[in-house]
Amino acid sequence: MRVIRGRAATPDADRAATRELLGAVADSGTPAVRAWTPHRQLAFGRRDANETGYETARGAARERGFPPVERSVGGRAVAYTGTTVAFASLEPVADSRSGLTDRYEAAVGTVVAALDSLGIDAERGEPPESFCPGDYSVQAPCSTGDGERPEKLAGIAQRVTAGAAMVSGVVTVADREEIGDVLDPVYDALGVPFDPNSVGSVAAAGGPNDPDRVARALEDAIVDGRPTTIERLADPGRET
Fold first, then answer.
1. What is the rounded distance in angstroms from the CA atom of residue 80 to the CA atom of residue 64?
2. pLDDT, tens only, 4-55
3. Which of 8, 72, 101, 223 gives 14 a disulfide partner, CB atoms 3.0 to 4.6 angstroms apart?
4. What is the 3-state secondary structure (H, E, C) of the chain?
5. Residue 10 to residues 38, 198, 233: CA-CA distances in angstroms?
6. Calpha distance 189→193 (Å, rounded)
7. How far apart are CA 120 and CA 108, in angstroms?
8. Per DSSP, what are the bridge partners of residue 234?
């Protein structure tokens, strides 16, 4: 299994690297994994781009220091602060029409196992009006001024092409207030219900405030003991 670490020098180049990796998995039949911290950005899903308030939402993101981009998978807008960890598990598939649900279910279990290894009591689910709402999300009790409440830590998406499937997602490590602050006007412009208090983080759930540790935990859970070769992308300014 190929383990790809680091990120490319620009957001566009970084997204291109993942697309190229998906094609390489389809061509070679060798699975691959990435777990890294993307550049600071606000990534909109394809549904967002069709909303009447899309340009207003892009402006709100830009005003708050989050360059807006569009991602190829579905789902709603996601904010990356620079400490947010993304992951992508890429596997060859013989039939692109089957296995979708099984891959989603397995991915939830993998994220829960990774968070468990970091001391977090995570489970499948999400509180109401969460960011990027979906059936395959992970939540955990997070510290608040009034005690603890379940908050969303991770969301999962999937893309399938001829010969390969990519299950990807995002895990909020820290900066939950900043994420809530930028997503609030963005989701409002898109007409999507959103509660900023639904945003959790690994740190608020009692785990490490360290994106490198979170990335390696996700990587280890996805690899699951398989033999690996480690490769690095080109941005020397970031290890993860």
1. 12
2. 999 999 998 999 999 999 999 999 999 999 999 999 999 999 899 999 999 9
3. 8
4. CEEEECCCCCHHHHHHHHHHHHHHHHHHCCCEEEEECCCCEEEECHHHHCCCCHHHHHHHHHHCCCCEEECCCCCCCEEECCCCEEEEEEEECCCCCCCHHHHHHHHHHHHHHHHHHCCCCCEECCCCCCCCCCCCEEEEEEEECCEEEEEEEEEEEEEEECCEEEEEEEECCCCHHHHHHHHHHHHHHHCCCCCHHHECCCCCCCCCCCHHHHHHHHHHHHHCCCCCEEEECCCCCCCC
5. 9, 30, 11
6. 10
7. 14
8. none
65: left (phi over 0), alpha (psi -120 to 50) or beta: left
| pTM score over 0.90 | yes
- Report strand pairing: 2-5 vs 32-36: parallel
For 113-126, the pLDDT digits (tens) are 999 999 999 999 99
Residue 113 zone, left/alpha/beta (φ > 0; ψ -120 to 50; rest):
alpha
Residues paired with residue 2 on neighbouring β-strands, in sequence order: 32, 229
Q: List the structure tokens of 80.
A: 């990356």
CB 164 within 8 A of CB 171: no
The single residue listed with the structure tokens 């990519």 is 166
Residue type present at position 143: S
The answer to whether 32 touches 92, Cβ cutoff 8 Å, is no
Query: What single-letter amino acid sits at 20?
Result: E
